[in-house]
Amino acid sequence: MMGWPCYNKNGKSYTNCGNCDNETNTNDTLWFEDKLLCLSCHEKVIKPLIDSFTEEYEEGTCDWNDELKCPYCGYDNDSADAFNGGEPEDWECDRCGLEFDVDVEYSHTFQTKRKGD
Fold first, then answer.
1. pTM value?
2. How deeply is 117 buried, as exposed, middle or buried, from its count of CB atoms within 10 A (0-12, 13-18, 19+)?
3. E-strand stretches of the chain
4. Exposure string (b/e) for 58-86, b if CB count within 10 Å is 16 or more?
5. Distance between CA 43 and CA 31 in Å, rounded?
6. How far apart are the C-alpha atoms of 69 and 75, rounded to whole Å?
7. Which of 41, 74, 75, 78 could anchor a disulfide with 37, C-beta 3.0 to 4.6 Å?
8. What's the rounded Cα separation, in Å, for the pair 69 and 102?
9. pLDDT value at position 72?
10. Where are the alpha helices (DSSP H) in 1-117?
11. How far is CA 20 from CA 57, 85, 93, in A?
């Protein structure tokens, strides 16, 4: 897979961009799906996704969904590891690699039964 692994050179960590194959300082890379991309390539790849999702986002698409939807690209992230002790953690989209905040609304349901039944 391109864009991984990293290697050290002159005391810094580098990788090759998974898109353009240019050598890139790992501090200047972001994940997109399964590739590490240089910031320029990352911007080129995610800008169309963000632009196409922006109208839906402004209409409240990310408000109180059952999915953990990225407010940038609209990707439905897996929420299984989203919480630590009941509080949301910092979240990074599994698709576009951008960070976003998560607010959680809890609801309760109850079942009651007569004693002895």
1. 0.67
2. exposed
3. 7-9, 12-16, 23-25, 29-32, 35-38, 68-69, 76-77, 83-84, 87-88, 91-92, 99-100
4. eeeebeeeeebbbbbbbbebebeeeeeee
5. 11
6. 5
7. 41
8. 9
9. 92
10. 39-58
11. 30, 41, 22
Q: Is there a contact between 41 and 30 (Cβ–Cβ < 8 Å)?
A: no
14-64 pLDDT, tens digit per residue, is 888 888 988 888 888 888 888 889 999 999 999 999 998 888 888 777 877
The identity of residue 46, as a single letter, is I
Q: Is 77 helix (H, G, I), strand (E, B) or coil?
A: strand
The pLDDT assigned to 86 comes to 60
Q: Dig out the tokens for 115 from the structure.
A: 């004693």
| Kind plus residue range of the DSSP H or E element containing 33 | none
Q: Is 47 helix (H, G, I), strand (E, B) or coil?
A: helix
